[in-house]
Fold:
Amino acid sequence: MKTEIANPNQQNIDSDKQKMKRPKGTGPLAIMWREIVKDKLALISLILLGLVLVIVYGASLLLDQEKIITVDLLSIYAPPSAEHILGTDYGGRDILGQLIIGAKNSFTIGLFVTLVAGIIGLSVGLIAGYFGGKTDNVIMRIIDFVLILPTLMLIIVFVTIIPKYNVYTFILIMSGFLWTGKARLIRSKTLAERELDYVNASKTLGTPDWKIMIREVLPNLSSIIIVNLTLNLAGNIGIESGLTYLGFGLPESTPSLGTLVSYASNPDVLQNKWWIWLPASLLILVLMLCINFIGQALKRAADARQRLG
Amino acid sequence: MSFLKVNNLKVYYPIRGGFFRRVVDHVKAVDDISFELKQGETYGLVGESGCGKTTTGRTIIGLNKSTSGEILFEGKDLTKLSRRDFHHHRQDIQMIFQDPYSSLNPRKRVLDIIAEPLRNFERLSPGEEKRKVEYYIEKVGLNPESIYKYPHEFSGGQRQRIGIARALTLNPKLIIADEPVSALDVSVQAQVLNFMQDIQKEFNLTYLFISHDLGIIQHMCDRIGIMYRGQFVEQGTSKEIYSNPQHIYTKRLISAIPDINPEKRVRQVELRQEINAEYKNSYEKYFNAEGKVYQLKQISDTHSVALP
Amino acid sequence: MIKFILRRFVVMIPQLIILSVLIFALAKAMPGDALTGQLASNPKMDAQTLHELKQKLGLLDPPYKQYLHWAGGLLHGDMGMSVIHQVPVTQLLAGRMENTLILSLAILILSYMIAIPLGIVGGRWTDSWADKMVVGYNYLTFATPLFIFALIMLFIFGFVLNWFPTSGSVDIRVEDGTFSYYMSKLNHLILPALSGAIVNTTVTIQYLRNEIIDTKIKDFVKTARAKGVNESKVYTQHILRNSFLPIAAFLGYEIVYLIGGSVFLETIYGYPGIGQLFIASISQRDFSVVTALVMISGLATLIGTLLSDIILSAVDPRIRIE
Structure:
């Protein structure tokens, strides 16, 4: 990163207002953008991901959901054809349509879980790191405890026994177990940040604690948070589709990519009817790879030592 | 009623140990000190690193909690005030930090940095706020257009000026300057120090000036307190301390000030050797069994020394 | 050091208690109790006998008493009866546990066999084409979800190429204890273990590679080179020595991954271990088995992290100073 040290004389020379406002490309977003463009793989991933998302969300608006989930006994397990580009499943339902709806649901839910878990983890981590001492101690004990829980099994148990089970409760259950990693990360970064004098300065200037946390400390953690959220998004899509694959994810009314993959638990489908499960598996793979490649580029942007340029 | 009076201030940090992490001992960062500031003067706190001078400053402004003792600011004990009441005194006491790099939030524009205290205490329209910020930024000698820049676009000296402008916006009465120039190049140090003296006159400020650099202290301060391991060793006017030091610790510190005149070099070395010999021979006279100094004793109206 | 271990144990006790309370609460929230099974086999039982039986089994006691009874049972290895299979849960678990342990062990061994050479290659010859392959491999395995990878492996090597069996842990036709029995077990193990291992290598490779890159520019390594130690000895005796112990110590933390992974792997490969049993039990609402499995997994994680913490603190004294 280039730092220009301006002296008063120089300022008078270039009185160009645009230039005065701020030099380009030193904010975290600008650095992140540069890093993605520099990394061809990340750039391709970004374009591919954008394309997939536009197609998925666009097409899901045009698709007739009713028609897709209606059983059509005349075309059970139809292989790909002109009518059904990716064939049909055991109920004669169009795979392509289900793929699009499933991808939309998987991505949306992955996003929501990431956001909810992110907000919980962020608040808890900020509070623990900023206040330190006893508060930190109590919170860390809780986090240590959640970390030893057999998370996957407990999510499955919760999914089974919760009385009013729907998409929202699913998001809450997942978030309830997945916030700890982020809380830990944010806590350790906040602990380091609060030792810096700008936090002390804000205290002596009479700024209330909550404002220091949100307005002063948080912006300085933004790059780490963006990186972490991106990588989490990929992970959460994987966990969601995995749970749905096992039959403990999204309820049947909301098909996900995992729903299509789960048809492969029938050996006949796995062996002979690749068009049912393979496209969904590959789509999950593509989504996760793209998001991860973008995340890795962002990670490099956040850490000055690793930047490409 | 004095302006600021510190009575028997103690700041201890617990050392935990043993199986149950009980408090087994304390680090006595500040161990029973008392001093007084008059309005308009500059009081210097000097000592080696770790002697408790910064802790003292930070405790006065409320960044550290005192273990016991009183901090009377215009008659009110700051240590007894609730957080809410303390908030009202924030405006009167401000601080200039040592490191101009970490004390300015890199994510904020200069405008937002300087306006932060204004937003906490005064309700101004954006226009008024901007005018006020521009007024102070000009006072500290920076171009008013630089308020839209970010801290990294400035040099260390300029950053320290921004820090000073931020401290000035609330019209404080007392400014605690914690090593305000030690992170700066020597060439910029004098500039910032002289500037601090200028604004002191203009805004009728009182400084509590914390430094380890005796040259700077001599240049800035009316009265001086010398600290060693959390206690006061000697206190007096600038003249008394520099021309008539009584405690061996003070003598050693002052003999360590470099002199740029090469002709005096031999004399300087001899002086140091003399003092070192005295230090070795009469250690017991100045330090007790724990290696700490004794209680302060008045030797004139303004001068006191820690002697048995 | 002993003080650290003791304190670490003291921290573990409340964790264990809270874990058991949580699981007990969950078990209470699950439908059915110890009598549901008997009721199924004897539907004509009248309300009076039912009430008496409940009283006898302590099901009408206040919750804390029930908890103490349940926790006491756990300490004696009594985890209740499986409602579906009508056998004690412990008996049901024994064989499954063995299979899962074998699978987990195989995953660990394989993943170290893959990860350590790759990590060393990546770290020693940074930025070479070999390193770029390692980094690429790492990106891929990090992003790939285990269940997708396992499914594709099963599809390719099990169904398309027909190299490996697609289900079970052993061929039922071979006789127990014979050579072909063990070969069959091994044959059934390879595919699930390999799938689990490949996806599990990322952390180790990354750690080892970074560690070597960081260490090889340190002064003590330069000193060794300057003394004329030959290059491969610099690596084996100076650089790697410091990196291996932490890797071994991560073993305990891996248990969390292995338990989660076993659920997917065993379901996909029809491998009769505790992961498959868990999914089967929860689908059949056999909740006493579910509770036991969650408790055992929690306990395993707890002990795993304990071991890792202790080993790590022995390797790196800084961890002990809190």
Observations:
- Chain B has a mean pLDDT of 86.
- The longest strand of chain B covers residues 22-37.
- The two ends of chain B are 30 Å apart (CA to CA).
- Chain B touches chain C at residues 19 (CB under 8 Å).
